[in-house]
Amino acid sequence: MTGHADLTGKLLVATPEISEGVFRRSVVLLLHHGEDGAQGIILGQPLDTLVSALLPTWSEPVLDDPHAYFGGPVQTDSALGVAALVEGRGDTGVARLYGDLGLVDLDADPEVVTNQVSAMRVFVGYAGWSAGQLEGEITSGSWFVVDRRPGDVLHEAGPALWSRVLARQPGPLGWMATYPDDPSLN
């Protein structure tokens, strides 16, 4: 990428500048970042909808949590399966993203995929940015860019994820974890 580092695999953590909407206090895993733009999924936002209602054949393979998760406002009529891959696996029905994470082909036979994954989550929709848009948002102060940890993607859920990711950051960035919902009341 010309002039910008590839942020694929990093987490975007919403700054207090994003005070409303779907990205307020969100944590986004970047699935792809390149000259053509970026795509990611919002982490930690379970839906009331069960995976079995969306994808009946995938209700069993989704481990730990039967709920679908909100991945973002783009193409909310589609779903993405993100999984932690078993070491040495990830070839049939699963495309390795980076590290131990893979993207599951939800059209594949679940029985072929389940022996390759240790955990999986289904995300409805995704977050997307056109070329240069994400870089502009980062420069303007809308996002902190931090490294992910294994538990961030598939094991920690709910609104506390934002605070937990920030709390482990060094220096003043870690202090943001206790930023009040309404600073005027502080």
What does this structure look like?
Strands 1, 2, 3, 4, 5, 6, 7, 8, 9 and 10 form a ten-stranded mixed beta sheet that branches. The protein is of the alpha+beta class and 186 residues long. The protein has a single domain, classed as VC0467-like (3-Layer(aba) Sandwich), CATH 3.40.1740.10. It contains six helices and ten strands. The longest helix has 8 residues. Helices cover 18% and strands 36% of the residues. β2 and β3 form a beta hairpin. The mean pLDDT is 88.
Task: List key phrases describing it.
VC0467-like; ten-stranded mixed sheet; alpha+beta; 6 helices; 10 strands; 186 residues
Write the layout of secondary structure elements.
Blueprint (H helix, E strand, L loop, with lengths): L10 E4 L12 E8 L2 E7 L2 E5 H4 L12 E4 L3 E12 L8 E5 L2 E4 L5 H5 L2 E14 L2 H7 L3 E4 L3 H5 L5 H8 L4 H4 L11
Parallel strand pairs: 5-9
Antiparallel strand pairs: 1-2, 1-10, 2-3, 3-9, 4-5, 6-8, 6-9, 7-8
* Biggest sheet character: 10 strands, mixed
- How many beta strands in the DSSP annotation? 10
Which geometry do the CA atoms define? Answer: globular
β-sheet strand percentage:
35-45%
Looking at the overall shape, the CATH architecture is 3-Layer(aba) Sandwich
Can you tell me the CATH topology? VC0467-like
Within CATH, the superfamily carries the name VC0467-like
- Average residue pLDDT: 88
Whole-number radius of gyration? 17 Å
CATH class wording? Alpha Beta
Number of domains: 1
Low-pLDDT stretches are: none
Order of helices and strands: EEEEHEEEEHEHEHHH
Percentage of residues assigned to helices: 10-25%
Q: Please report the number of helical segments.
A: 6
Structural class: alpha+beta
End-to-end Cα distance, whole Å, is 42 Å
Pfam families: DUF179
Family: Belongs to the UPF0301 (AlgH) family.
